[in-house]
Specification:
Elements: H1 20-27, H2 36-47, E1 50-55, E2 60-63, H3 70-78, E3 83-88, E4 91-100, E5 103-111, H4 117-162, H5 166-176, E6 185-192, H6 198-208, E7 214-217, E8 224-229, H7 233-244, E9 249-252, E10 256-257, H8 261-275, E11 282-284, H9 297-308, H10 316-331, H11 334-341, H12 345-359, H13 366-383, H14 397-402, H15 405-416, H16 425-434, H17 439-446, H18 450-464, H19 473-484
Parallel strand pairs: 9-11
Antiparallel strand pairs: 1-2, 1-5, 3-4, 4-5, 6-8, 6-9, 6-10, 7-8
Helix pairs in contact: 1-4, 2-4, 4-5, 9-13, 10-11, 10-12, 11-12, 13-19, 15-19, 16-17, 16-18, 17-18
Organism: Streptomyces marokkonensis
Pfam families: HTH_30
Protein name: Helix-turn-helix domain-containing protein
């Protein structure tokens, strides 16, 4: 190392080679070293000076604050001059204007020694590097904001679809993705991976579907990506994506109308549970026999309308809001429902408590939840509003609907699968439902350990081919089977 009067560190360089400081400065442009504050600190150490980087408003961006002539800073900030030099009080200063995008900064270097050619070169080149870094950071930040805004817009569209507001969803989507929701039907897919891989998974889903599908980060589950697509090719595209990555799974719904996006989402989540145990890591919701399809359609419609009649006096918007929230609230937890709808969990609970009060039910009772779920499911699947339905028309009521021979046969076959297990799993399941799905209370009634109850429940799921430990359609169908078989008491509703 050799010293010079300018104080700049240097080693002898071969002819034609840049000085050492230039190599060091270039290192700050590498991806791992792109930090404006580190560059400013490096400049201060290299030229043995105090360095300040501030914006036009005087806010310190990096370095140490220096006393600067306001007139010079104003001229630099306005663009009247590009650089300036000042000497006084035993100090020498160099000021350089750095412009990047709509923002202007001033780099000020103050030291005791005068600026010779080498020191001036270091300051000039450092200013260029800082300008590049600030511009790159501004572009990156703008890109991030754009991606965040686009993601928020996709989530807003999904939330509108979840509450059956397809008109508003199409209107919002038309601006950025023309034709995306023009179809009447679509499939919903849920792709699952580790939470720390989700951002890359979102990007791959967008690329794989060529942005011809609605790709949304699930607001409720950190590792899930929701894809809503009206195109038949999406299923194959997503299967190919899942096949390329370990520990990635795909669940898909059957084709549904856009108004039934919430139903399709529930189907995709149910299929995802199956996909985790399949070799190809994918599954599509199985169109199995559902109890409502075994009931007389006219009697079922009349019964559902009568059960929900207490809500008919509400304004249309309020009624639709309460019903949409309750449908999701019966499928998912209040916290996850709130995330899906973009409201607070207290709002979800308040809406569901209002429905409870009006229908005269207690949602802590799983049988009540199952019966209201059946009415809501009937409304959207068979009723499509209230047109053509007379709530006062004769209906055999829930008892009559469940007493149908076809329903009884379905219930006996489903629950009979558990009779082969010698551990009284069927009795455990019935008790667990009766006490509101609480393993500890069920264990007290049965005189066993709570862990035994949980093991029985988990062993019943593959036998019944339904998820039981999570609220949703699967559990409610099993509850209806118990009601039809006479194993549980039927709840009383105000409209019955």
């Amino acid at each position: 190392m050799a010293g010079r009067r300018d104080g700049i560190r240097r080693t002898p360089a071969a002819a034609g080679e840049p000085p050492t400081w230039a190599h060091e400065l270039l290192e700050h442009l590498r991806p791992a070293g792109r930090d404006v504050r580190r560059v400013v600190d490096w400049l201060a150490a290299t030229v043995h000076a105090e360095v300040s980087l501030q914006d036009a408003a005087g806010t310190l961006v990096a370095g140490t604050r220096l006393p600067l002539a306001p007139s010079l800073v104003a001229d630099l900030g306005s663009g009247r001059i590009a650089s300036a030099a000042w000497e006084g009080d035993g100090r020498h200063q160099r000021l350089v204007r750095i412009g990047h995008g709509a923002r202007t900064c001033v780099l000020a270097v103050s030291r005791v020694a005068p600026f010779d050619r080498d020191a001036s070169d270091v300051v000039t080149h450092t200013a260029q590097v800082i300008e590049l870094l600030l511009t790159a950071h501004g572009t990156s930040a703008a890109g991030h904001r754009l991606r965040r805004a686009t993601a928020d817009l996709r989530l807003a569209i999904l939330q509108l679809l979840m509450v059956e507001d397809t008109v508003a969803a199409r209107r919002v989507a038309a601006g950025l993705w023309p034709g995306l929701l023009d179809a009447d039907t679509a499939c919903v897919y849920v792709v699952e991976s580790a939470p720390d891989r989700r951002e890359r998974l979102v990007a791959e889903c967008l690329d794989t579907t060529r942005e011809e599908a609605l790709v949304v980060r699930c607001p409720a589950m950190d590792g899930h990506v929701i894809v809503v697509s009206p195109r038949e090719t999406t299923a194959a595209d997503l299967r190919s994506l899942v096949g390329r990555h370990p520990d990635t799974f795909l669940g898909g719904s059957v084709w549904q109308s856009l108004a039934r996006t919430a139903t399709a989402y529930g189907q995709a989540v149910s299929a995802l549970a199956v996909a985790r145990f399949r070799a190809d890591k994918t599954a599509v919701y199985a169109e199995r026999t559902h109890p409502e399809r075994l009931m007389d359609p006219a009697a079922l419609r009349s019964w559902a309308a009568r059960v929900l009649r207490p809500l008919d006096a509400l304004p249309h918007h309020t009624r639709a809001e309460l019903l949409a929230t309750t449908r999701l609230g019966l499928e998912f937890t209040a916290v996850n429902t709130a995330k899906i709808l973009g409201v607070s969990r207290n709002t979800v609970r308040a809406r569901m408590e209002r429905v409870e009060s009006m229908l005269g039910v207690d949602f802590d009772d799983i049988t009540a939840r199952a019966v209201v779920h059946l009415a809501l499911h009937t409304q959207i699947n068979l009723l499509d509003g209230q047109a053509g339905t007379d709530p006062g028309a004769h209906s055999p009521g829930l008892a009559g609907l469940l007493a149908d021979e076809a329903v009884g046969a379905w219930a006996r076959e489903l629950l009979g699968r558990l009779d082969r297990d010698t551990r009284t799993v069927r009795r455990t399941l019935r008790t667990w439902i009766a006490v509101g799905g609480n393993a500890e209370r069920a264990a007290q009634v049965l005189g066993v350990h709570a862990q035994t109850v949980r093991e029985h429940m988990r062993s019943a799921e593959p036998v019944l081919e339904r998820q039981l430990l999570a609220s949703g359609t699967d559990l409610y169908e099993v509850v209806l089977a118990h009601l039809a078989a006479g194993d549980l008491e039927q709840p009383v509703l105000a409209g019955e």
